[in-house]
Design a protein that fits this description.
Mean pLDDT: 94
Low-confidence stretches: none
Shape: globular
CATH class of one domain: Alpha Beta
Strand content: 5-15%
Helix content: 25-40%
Number of helices: 5
Length: about 180
Amino acid sequence: MKDYKYMVRDVVAEKISRISKLLDSDNKKLIIRSVWRSFAHQKLIWDDKVASMRKEYPKKQLEEITEFVSYFIAPPSKSMHSTGGAVDALIYDLKNDCVMDFGTNDGLNIELNDKCYPYHPHIPLKAKENRKLLMHLFEEEDFVVDIKEYWHFDYGNAGWAVGKAKDHAIYGIIDT
């Protein structure tokens, strides 16, 4: 996207910068797929996926479709991205000139299925190693990996608070 600006909390930006520097020293680049999203943007993503699923499965009830969609796309009212504390990321390997294989991606495109769970046992060994690297980099910066999406990391929001057994989140929704 031309001139697309990513917005995150200052602390999150500092953490991303440190992760990027570590990858730079290994001839790799951190790819930020998504960070803060407005309620309206999240609603658009949600509505588009629900609509496409309804078209693909016309005999399914809306409740079934929304339940399935919610496995990988948060409903607008529950999105961690609206806090400025969520990061969706992958890694680009400069030596091999490609996005690293994480088991469900074709470059930047991620196929949403049960293999997206961070520790899914039935993915290739190389994909497991790549996920381990990605998760380790973010965990070293005090992020938590989402339980259903190996590419999604939370810091300071409700997802982070649950993952770190904190009494409360640091960040709430940023509404613009």
